[in-house]
Design a protein that fits this description.
421 residues; Rossmann fold; seven-stranded mixed β-sheet; alpha/beta; Helicase, Ruva Protein, domain 3; 21 helices
């Protein structure tokens, strides 16, 4: 656990992340309903960026996993530029955005002076993660930074949000399309070739791509999951059952983590033996830990450690600092499991598939998330992942507590029922 992971142990989505446009299948896009060459548009924006130009930033909008962020990094590699990335859902307030972006949008660090040609691109990911908190200053602050930035700003979003209209009016907004199935298949075939893996049937590759609806990242993760250890796939049923089988593995791992792990070394060893994608496992633990930790102070500590682990993993992915991976595991595994000191050991626990992965977030949960947005400086994603499970735990303690929560958030009948599930 203390060593930097070997290249062979890296997630394939990181190992084969394109470092140049020549290495990637470029997603197509539309601007004002007209098809454009997205790479050419981004390069033109960067090269002709001026503080007094018509547009201070551009926005890439489209489904997750289709290459929006990757194309920015690939272009930066080709142009010898440095990407300064932040996730808008983690910097929602005026103060946080200023702290993260203001200096980066103006200053040049020591390496910039040593490498004079190495300019910056400011990348703001998940810009749709700040909707609902415009009154906290997030949107006005981004507009101010756009106006004064010495460097081009590129924003990325998964979906349209009405409350971001002030930003939309100040940027060029590109609607990015998923890659064609045959393009995704080519990429998967190339990965298999570079991994020196054979025996995978072409029709099974098609099944993976169809299953993920154009999400390249998910398709690569599925392929790695199926081929882990170098074995060939004998039946298309392996792909159809992939989610179920992976779920069963994670169910067992999570239960062991929370009911049997007693030391940091035990947590390290357990996670070290797991072949499950780090980010996927994080989502599973985040969704299910309130079922294993039932005391508020312990639950708070567990979520705090999980949050710190997420920040570390974000830095690992952004800057390729894989030497930090042991610290991620220590916080994610030991830091979370060992937060449970006095909670009782539960009997059978029915683990649930992470809602934000499955796409099965119901209307009642989303409406409750909206109400939480109005009370706190959080996104809907964060509300669904952390706040709602915590409220359900509180509501389960007593009828009085559930009534207090219902009155506080003015819940309707369906939202109240959600707290009882």
């Amino acid at each position: 656990m203390g060593k930097k992971p070997e290249e062979k142990d890296l997630p394939w989505v990181e190992k084969y992340r394109p470092m140049s446009l020549k290495e990637m299948a470029k997603p197509s896009a539309k601007l004002n309903n007209k098809k454009v060459d997205l790479a050419d548009e981004i390069i033109d924006f960067i090269k002709n960026y001026k503080k007094d130009g018509e547009f201070k930033a551009i926005l890439l909008e489209g489904p997750p996993g289709i290459g929006k962020t990757s194309i920015v990094y690939a272009i930066a590699g080709d142009l010898n530029m440095k990407v300064i990335e932040t996730n808008a859902s983690d910097t929602r307030t005026q103060k946080a955005i200023h702290r993260k972006l203001d200096e980066a949008s103006k200053a040049r660090d020591m390496m910039d002076f040593l490498q004079k040609s190495r300019n910056k691109i400011i990348l703001i990911d998940e810009i749709d993660g700040i909707y609902g908190v415009t009154d906290k200053g997030a949107v006005p602050t981004i507009l101010e930074i756009m106006k004064n930035s010495e460097f081009p700003i590129i924003m990325v979003a998964n979906e349209y949000k009405k409350t971001l209209n002030p930003i939309y009016r100040s940027v060029k907004k590109y609607e990015v399309q998923p890659l064609a199935d045959d393009e995704v298949i080519k990429i998967l075939k190339n990965i298999l070739k570079r991994e020196n893996l054979t025996g995978f049937k072409p029709k099974d590759l098609v099944k993976i791509v169809k299953k993920n609806h154009g999400d390249l990242r998910a398709s690569i993760n599925d392929l790695q999951g199926l081929m882990q250890g170098g074995g060939a796939i004998d039946s298309i049923e392996d792909i159809q059952n992939l989610q179920r089988d992976t779920s069963e593995v994670i169910f067992s791992l999570i239960r062991t983590l929370f009911t049997e792990v007693k030391t940091l070394n035990e947590a390290r060893n357990l996670l070290d033996k797991s072949d499950v994608d780090y980010s996927l496992l994080y989502k599973w633990v985040n969704e299910n830990l309130p079922k294993y930790i039932n005391l508020n102070d312990e639950l708070s500590d567990a979520f705090e450690n999980l949050s710190l682990a997420d920040q570390i993993f974000g830095r690992i992915r952004t800057y390729q600092y894989w030497a930090l991976l042991p610290y991620f595991f220590d916080l994610f595994g030991g830091g979370v499991a060992l937060s449970k000191k006095r909670s009782y050991i539960p009997g059978f626990v029915r683990n649930t598939f992470p809602q934000m992965i499955s796409g099965r977030v119901g209307a009642n949960k989303l409406s409750l998330a909206k109400k939480l947005e109005e009370e706190y400086e959080i996104s809907s994603i964060e509300a669904v992942r952390t706040e709602i499970p915590f409220l359900k735990l509180l509501a389960s303690m007593s009828i009085k507590k559930k009534k207090e929560i219902s009155e506080w958030l003015d819940l309707d009948a369906k939202e109240k029922k959600l707290l009882s599930k």
